[in-house]
Q: What sequence folds into this?
């Protein structure tokens, strides 16, 4: 039997030509669609679609685009030139140059690779998942960014005032008695934030966080610094602008409400007694000076010495002070202050005594005496400024309830506990303080001073001086 050759043509058909055209048109469409799918899959492997937000997790295994065509940080921080650090972006890593902390830190997207040809002091994969908080000042920055649960270790747990951090009850205390174990604990976190010169600064993941050394508004910029470790630059930008704008509005109203001759004179002081050696201090820190002038007040002038071992010389420097704010943690009553300063209620040649204008910034504390002044007040400059305006020009802030400041004889401080936490899962709220309307200087007066019942308020022509405590040598607060 003879086998015929296989057919290479379409079988015979008596259909109309329009039917053939429709059939081949559909077949061509299927082929083109399949080709597009294959091309798309191939393109996805070599040129992934650009990211619209910063990743909050690692790049999955095998999906890192080493060719450098992917920007893993589309949300970037824009740092003012006056800030004590700067951030630059390089595809899959970012570099922080901190002049205040004297460090260069490279943060690379986890799931990618550590840059091999870059010089830096520290290399840390981001976003971070665990934090050692070397002191309390970094805590509100982390909480505002929604990272409260990442704070797993601290050597300052007894001083932490955050009610919600206490409510989580996750933060362990550093083993201060065992230096080797303490270093192991610190190195086990994604990053260890601490003050310049901290005892565990030699840890491979230690990052200096000297926000307390900055002026008032640069303290807000440190939110951008911390956000870079969480890949949350967009949120930090929004929060920083909120603080800055609110601060500016309050300051503008306060300055307009003081006479052309200037507002009250303000100074911060602190009392130390170490090994029976007494020291009295007047701080000249930049952030204190900012709060004073931005509240419409004036700094204590003519003072060239800021630390005294002779009480008489210290008191002489306070002769023009109308409002005294003391930040000594061991001073919890007006009696304590009189004893520390060598005064009595009859020392009426001092205006702050005569007019009852003595304050403390430690209105909110924990049960161990830890103060919010060294925690959330470091970040919330707008709230601190509003407190200052309440103190120096109370008629401008008639219905305002201060957060951090109170009269030293105004009652016991508020003790914060876990019960004060509204929602441990929610970020720390940045308050938007109501911006007061400016009043005529003759209405508000220049010396101000918050009233306390029948207390006499300093008159318009009085000089208001506020003496507030310096943080202490180590924290510079």
A:
């Amino acid at each position: 039997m003879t086998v015929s050759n296989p057919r290479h043509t379409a079988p015979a058909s008596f259909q109309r030509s329009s039917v053939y055209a429709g059939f081949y048109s559909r077949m061509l469409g299927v082929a083109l669609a399949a080709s597009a799918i294959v091309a798309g899959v191939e393109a996805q492997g070599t040129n992934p679609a650009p990211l619209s937000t910063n990743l909050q997790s690692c790049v999955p295994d095998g999906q890192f685009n080493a060719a450098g065509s992917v920007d893993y940080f589309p949300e970037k921080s824009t740092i003012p030139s006056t800030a004590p650090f700067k951030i630059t972006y390089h595809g899959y890593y970012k570099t922080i140059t901190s002049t205040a902390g004297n460090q260069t830190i490279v943060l690379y997207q986890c799931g990618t690779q550590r840059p091999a040809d870059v010089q830096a002091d520290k290399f840390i994969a981001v976003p971070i998942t665990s934090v050692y908080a070397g002191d309390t000042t970094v805590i509100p920055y982390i909480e505002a960014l929604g990272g409260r649960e990442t704070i797993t270790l601290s050597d300052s747990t007894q001083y932490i005032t955050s009610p919600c951090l206490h409510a989580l009850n996750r933060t362990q205390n550093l083993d201060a008695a065992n230096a080797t174990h303490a270093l192991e604990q610190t190195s086990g976190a994604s990053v260890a934030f601490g003050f310049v010169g901290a005892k565990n600064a030699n840890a491979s993941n230690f990052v200096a966080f000297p926000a307390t050394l900055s002026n008032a508004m640069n303290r807000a910029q440190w939110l951008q610094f911390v956000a870079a470790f969480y890949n949350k630059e967009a949120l930090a930008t929004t929060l920083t602008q909120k603080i800055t704008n609110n601060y500016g509005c309050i300051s503008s109203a306060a300055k307009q409400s003081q006479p052309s001759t200037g507002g009250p004179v303000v100074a911060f002081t602190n009392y130390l007694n170490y090994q029976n050696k007494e020291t009295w201090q007047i701080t000249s820190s930049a952030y204190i000076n900012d709060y004073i002038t931005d509240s419409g007040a004036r700094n204590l002038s003519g003072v060239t010495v800021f630390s005294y071992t002779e009480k008489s010389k210290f008191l002489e420097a306070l002769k023009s002070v109308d409002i005294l704010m003391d930040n000594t943690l061991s001073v919890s009553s007006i009696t304590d202050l009189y004893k520390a300063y060598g005064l009595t209620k009859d020392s009426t040649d001092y205006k702050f005594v005569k007019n009852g204008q003595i304050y403390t910034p430690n209105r909110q504390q924990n049960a161990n005496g830890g103060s919010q002044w060294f925690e959330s007040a470091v970040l919330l400059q707008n709230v601190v400024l509003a407190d200052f305006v309440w103190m120096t020009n109370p008629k401008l802030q008639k219905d305002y309830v201060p957060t951090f400041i109170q009269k030293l004889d105004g009652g016991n401080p508020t003790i914060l506990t876990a019960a004060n936490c509204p929602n441990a899962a929610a970020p720390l709220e940045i308050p938007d303080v109501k911006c007061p309307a400016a009043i005529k200087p003759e209405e508000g007066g220049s010396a101000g001073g918050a009233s306390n019942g029948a207390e006499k308020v300093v008159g318009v022509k009085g000089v208001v001086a506020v003496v507030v405590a310096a943080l202490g040598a180590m924290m510079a607060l």
